[in-house]
Amino acid sequence: MMTSTTNEIFGHRVVRHIGVVRGITVRSRNVVSDAIGGVQSMIGGRVGAYVKLAEVGRQEAFEHLVEHAKAAGGNAILALRYDATEIMPGVTEVLAYGTAVVVEPQ
Asked: Which residues form a coiled coil (predicted)?
């Protein structure tokens, strides 16, 4: 699956627009991440425990997005974006979305 944050993929042309596709996951922090993150935040700088948690959430949402696009018949996703919303303290929804299309080489 080709993906792009732009509205085109260099060297390819869109032959069919399928529409909006998305991948959603909901992730929560755990006691260990909070403890490690709390210590790291007191020291300052990069908070690795939360970076890993954010990356896992984004990767999971991306994988669901790709599945959705494939199921709809697409072979590429354009205008790929991420969004995150805290549903409640410690629980975050991560959304990956874009436009599923069919592309072919120019």
From this structure: none
Q: Both tokens of residue 54?
A: 């954010």
- Is residue 97 within 8 Å of residue 76, measured between CB atoms? no
Structural domain range at position 20: 2-27+54-105
46 in a domain, yes or no?
no
pTM for this entry: 0.82
Evaluate whether 100 touches 77 at the Cβ level (below 8 Å). Answer: yes
Burial class, 36, CB count within 10 angstroms (exposed 0-12 / middle 13-18 / buried 19+): middle
Give which of 48, 47, 55, 49 is closest to 32, Cα–Cα. 49
Backbone angles phi, psi at 8, to 5 degrees: -155, 165
**Residue 68 three-state SS:** helix
Q: Could you say which DSSP state residue 47 is in?
A: -
